[in-house]
Amino acid sequence: MHEHNHDQKHHHPAPLIVTFDDCIRFHGHSCPGLASGYRAAVAAMEALGVTRPEDEDLVAICETDACGVDAIQVIAGTTAGKGNLIVHDYGKHAFTFYNRKDEKAVRITFNRGEDESTNEMNTIRPKVFSGTATKEEEARFHELMHKATVRILHAPAEKIMKIEEICMDAPKKARIFKSVTCEECGESVADSKTRVVGGKCLCIPCAEGTHPAKRK
Fold first, then answer.
1. What CATH number should be reported for the domain whose range is 179-214?
2. Cα atoms in the Cβ-side hemisphere of radius 13 Å centred on 112
3. Full-model pTM
4. I need a surface site. Which of 69, 77, 109, 161 has the fewest CB within 10 A?
């Protein structure tokens, strides 16, 4: 006969273990950018002494909207839906992580580390994405991408990135708004995202004339 644990409500499950393979499944493919986000998240969590949280205490501020952001969502558990993923598209592979519990933060940037293979990859890339590359060029590009990904995944941290403790103000927490009805399309919209046009309370697409259902 099994005894029931009446203290289950006080039990805290073990931290979710996620890997680079999970990042690939989420993102759809493996690439150097994804690997950079993975290394940044792992290094930051280690520097801050945190495990993957299920709440909003850990905040990621990304200075790019590229592939690495997806790895950060998977590894660090920071997402737009929880309000603890902030993206400023400055086109920089720089990632800041802030821990609300102790107000500590680290910023991680990556060394460019360009060499002959990087220059070759940059030369072939436009052809691959424009569909003008030969089969040999495509194969070579994917080979170089794979090698760059492996290098980023396994290189000593000090060789590829700078991990710097910084002081910063706490990022604003996500606000909760009530829903109202747009007087034009009749759809529900957060009250903070409305505009008054001609005395009517409208959602932004209706106010700007870009509502997809109204453009048929």
1. 3.30.60
2. 7
3. 0.81
4. 109
Structure tokens at 180: 């109202």
pLDDT at residue 104 tops 50:
yes
Give 114: exposed, middle or buried? Use CB within 10 Å, 0-12, 13-18, 19+.
exposed
- Label the pairing between strands 188-190 and 58-62: unpaired
- Contact between 145 and 115 under an 8 Å Cβ cutoff? The reply is no
- 20-166 topology per CATH: 60s Ribosomal Protein L30; Chain: A; (3.30.1330)
DSSP class per residue in 63-103? S--STHHHHHHHHH---TTTT-EEE---S--EEEEEETTTT
Q: Where are the domains of the chain?
A: 20-166, 179-214
Identity (one letter) of the amino acid at 25? R
Condensed to tens digits (0 to 9), the pLDDT of residues 7-63 reads 444 444 555 689 999 999 999 999 999 999 999 999 999 999 998 877 889 999 999
Q: What is the DSSP string of 153-164?
A: HHS-HHHHEEEE
Q: Which residue has the tokens 């990087």?
A: 118
Question: Which amino acid belongs to residue 147?
Answer: K
Alpha helix stretches (DSSP H) within the chain: 20-27, 32-48, 68-76, 116-130, 135-154, 157-160, 204-208
